[in-house]
Design goal:
There is one protein chain. The chain is mainly α. It has one domain. About 60% of the residues lie in helices and about 10% in strands. It has a three-stranded mixed sheet, with no helix packed on it. Helix 4 packs antiparallel against helix 7. The longest helix is centred in the middle third of the chain and has 25 residues. The radius of gyration is 20 Å and the shape is globular.
Length: about 280
């Protein structure tokens, strides 16, 4: 690649830290996670109030979702992508540290899987509805309407970290991730973030047009189907996350997306289980 060729692409090498407070630095990735949680909190609280659900029933929701997503995403990465290592080092699944030749080193949770986070969220919401006695499909639909906003911010965090990079390409909007190499690559993180923004708008348009569908599982299904279908196809533009995926016809991210797409389609179609668990009509 010549210097002139480089001008055709977007050079990407942002500072990892958004700002510093004394010696403590706040990373863009952490900030994006905060925005993700804040967006979900504000949007779902607004939906609860529009639907006249008491604030006391909303208050514990944030705790359940935060713990469920974090634990599920962490365990999902460890067990789906690096099971050999983490089953041999189980403490590193739960501690934000890694054992090295020089002892334990703080790394943060370097590895979070969206599929695991989704499973963790669903389990957390099951516990939440057992406590609050709210209808499970009503809660899932409300969470689903706001979920694309959170997913969008998380992928922007991945972009700021120059992680989950795309395959080399010559498209004019390719990013050169300088912290990785000097090859122009698909910005897969940005592709996903844009898709999730579109799904957020589409979900809200549908909600305002068909508010009576909240509680049927339709919006839960719409969220799963759109997000994981986009994820499935965008995976073709990404580098594999683990070397053992290179020989696979479809990678682990795509394999894990298929059950969510099927479940989402089932819910959108108003499957028997959704009708059983949904609110009486």
């Amino acid at each position: 690649m010549t210097a002139m060729d480089n001008l055709l692409f977007i050079t990407w090498n942002p500072d990892l830290f958004a700002f510093h407070l004394g010696s403590f630095g706040v990373r863009w990735y952490s900030l994006c996670w905060c925005f993700a949680l804040l967006a979900a909190y504000v949007l779902v609280q607004r939906l609860y109030r529009q639907q006249h659900i008491a604030d006391k029933l909303f208050d514990p929701l944030f705790f359940y979702c935060f713990v469920g997503i974090l634990v599920g995403a962490r365990l999902g990465h460890c067990l789906f992508y690096e099971p050999g290592y983490f089953l041999a080092h189980p403490l590193e699944m739960i501690l934000p540290m890694r054992q090295t030749a020089n002892g334990w080193t703080f790394t943060g949770y370097a590895g979070l899987a969206s599929h695991g986070g989704t499973i963790g969220l669903m389990l957390a919401l099951w516990l939440y509805v057992r406590k609050t006695k709210l209808n499970i499909m009503h809660v899932l639909d409300n969470i689903a309407i706001a979920t694309p906003a959170s997913a969008m911010f998380i992928r922007l965090g991945n972009l700021m970290n120059s992680e989950i990079i795309g395959k080399p390409t010559d498209v004019p909007w390719a990013f050169v991730f300088e912290r990785v190499d000097m090859l122009p690559r698909h910005p897969g993180q940005l592709y996903e973030a844009i898709c999730y923004f579109v799904f957020l708008i589409a979900g809200y348009v549908l909600y305002h047009k068909y508010p009576q569908k909240v509680g049927t599982g339709f919006y839960f299904g719409f969220c799963l189907t759109t997000i994981f279908t986009a994820r499935f196809f965008i995976e073709y533009t990404k580098e594999v996350q683990e070397a053992w995926e290179a020989a696979m016809l479809i990678n682990m991210g795509q394999i894990l997306s298929i059950p969510f797409i099927l479940l989402g389609s089932y819910c959108m179609a108003g499957g028997k289980l959704c009708r059983k668990l949904g609110e009486p009509r």
